[in-house]
Amino acid sequence: MKSLKKKRRSAFARNKKALISLYLFLLLFLVSLCAPFIANDKPILLWDKQQLYFPQVEFVSDKMLGGELPTEADFSDSFTQNYLKEHNFYVLNPLIKYSYDTVDYLSLYPFPSKPDSFHLLGTDDQGRDVFARLLYALRISILFGLSLTFFSVVLGVFVGAIQGYFGGKTDLFIGRFLEIWSSLPQLFILIIVSSLIAPSFFSLLLILLLFSWTQLTGVVRAEFLKTRGLDYVKAAKILGVSDFMIMWRHILPNALVATITYIPFMLSAAIVSLSALDFLGFGLPVGTPGLGELIRQGKENLSAPWLGLTAFFVMTILLALLVFIGEGVRDAFDPHQENKNV
Predict the structure, then answer these.
(1) Angle formed at CA 326 by CA 323 and CA 331, multiple of 5 degrees
(2) Share of the chain above pLDDT 90, in %
(3) CA geometry: angle 305, 310, 316, nearest 5 deg
(4) Does residue 276 sit within a domain?
């Protein structure tokens, strides 16, 4: 008989749509993490046969490259480029010579400009490369979603475990609190709080965490209520095992089975929440690349459909991959699958 873990992995692997979606999501995430090496206005490395420079991770001054100022070198400046050529510097540039905040002042077209050989997806209303902004926006969205999902799972499992294990008045008090908290107009509260706090990655993470953790509480509570009356839990209590150890070692592993099936859907919800706040203008600081921010630009610049359509397309693909992964995980952890392929 196969072990339970192997059967679940096999069940997930048999779902080709979920497996391919997982690989594509991991590929997108890896590419987004490498965004500075793919789209940047600074070279990846410089070499003058005497010294090696890494401008993306170290300070390279204008004076070091023939200029007169001690400020950071501008590699898009024609003087700097000519100096590098004249002194036979070996320059390894990214595939796209624009970062998310690089303004193309040499563009021959008004902003936002159409896609061309210099800007594969055109520029936005401030002359910034749309492809570069999408790449960085994807990285921020996934990292934000993973962070929010992690803290939501930790908090949701903690509260649900206490509620389900101790029951009685504890369960009643937490249950009434959750009913009141969940009935509040979440979107309006998020908008009000985000407008009062200086926007940043961590402040938005804290704001969205106010409500996102409640999704798992009911599921974890039900698992603890079901498991706490089993014989091995009662035997552990008789032997004097502490409540914490019983919850941590004997009940929590069973509760995590149901929790894991929710994670891909929580991740997609976190990405949508961040994009919605960006779209409404209450998200990340001005200038930060975001999927919602690009969609908002598309709404404000109807004559430049490539802005909204590209961001919408990327978000649709990302969310579809997460939904397919979630369906695969849910089917793999389905109790009815455990009796198959024995």
Answers:
(1) 130
(2) 30
(3) 125
(4) yes
The reply to whether 117 falls in a domain is no
Here the CATH number for the domain that contains residue 277 is 1.10.3720.10
Query: Does residue 178 lie within any of the structural domains?
Result: yes
Each residue's pLDDT tens digit, 322-340: 999 999 988 887 655 555 5
Alpha-helical regions (H) of 50-104: 78-86
Q: pTM here?
A: 0.88
Instruction: Indicate the number of domains in the chain.
Output: 1
DSSP secondary structure of 207-244: HHHHHHTHHHHHHHHHHHHHHTTSHHHHHHHHTT--HH
Contact 134, 195 (CB under 8 A): no
- Beta-sheet strands, E only, within 58-142: 90-92
* Whole-angstrom distance, CA of residue 19 vs CA of residue 9: 10
- The Cα–Cα gap between 280 and 272 comes to 12
The range of the structural domain enclosing residue 209 comes to 4-34+132-339
Distances (CA, A) of 236 to 164, 241, 246, 255: 17, 5, 7, 18
In a domain, 192, yes or no: yes
Q: pLDDT tens digits, residue range 144-181?
A: 999 999 999 999 999 988 888 888 888 899 989 988 88
